[in-house]
Amino acid sequence: MQDQPSSAPALFRYDDDTQVRVVTIDGEPWFVLADLAGALGITATGRLAARLDEGVRQTHTLHTAGGTQSMTIVSEPGMYEVILRSDKPEAVTFRRWLTGTVLPEIRRTGSYNVAPALEGPELIAAALIESQKIIEAREQQIALLSAPAKSWQLLADASGDFSVAEAAKILSRDPSITTGRDRLFAYMAEAKWIFRSRNHRGGWEAYQTAVDTRRLVEKPAKPFLNSKTGAYELPAPTIRVTAKGIGKLHELMGGTEPIRFITGEESA
């Protein structure tokens, strides 16, 4: 993909030795690949970039201490793929910081803000305000939990399965979840529900555990004739998410608001 124009990245500090630069493009966060690789102990950044699909990486011009530089950046799905390639035990903690702290803050404010240090009366006042926010948040959570999640129970009891795109739309009915087809594929890969097949041109396949627990099903694909080789080839199966799988994803992705399951008859 062609180099994007220069813009000022947001700087996120993970610890004293690790920082990550993020650029927002068309409302979506893109991470500087070199920063992710450094945090995860991956040294061969160029080789790592070459292994990523073009759809999740591009080059972007950034202002650095050494001047303007063209750097590789990756999308949110690309970020998940990079993390999955790290063998460091700290990769899980790093991913949780990105997905649980940085991404929600970016989507809420468009930047990552660190509150300045407060002292004396200002600290007490800030503590009181924060305490009230916590109390209100807990009251809202109690209200949600006290009203049984009939919609998700109905969803769990429903039959049939859904495409990944359809599952993403159902999950996105909960305002606390922001996802789409590609993001959901990346999330399920990180959760070890699916993996890239070596036998089907890199298409997605489901882990047997995800099938055995009835969270995913695979629909066999029809063989096709390869015009170059003259041989029939079998594409990767189509991944489908069951109602039970959507319910589990809603739980894992931190869903907070019950969403009524809309059947085909109701949506007609």
TrEMBL record:
Pfam families, per database record: ANT, Bro-N
InterPro entries in UniProt: Ant_C, BRO_N_domain
Domain Bro-N: 1-110
The name this protein goes by in its record: Bro-N domain-containing protein
Species the sequence originates in: Gordonia caeni
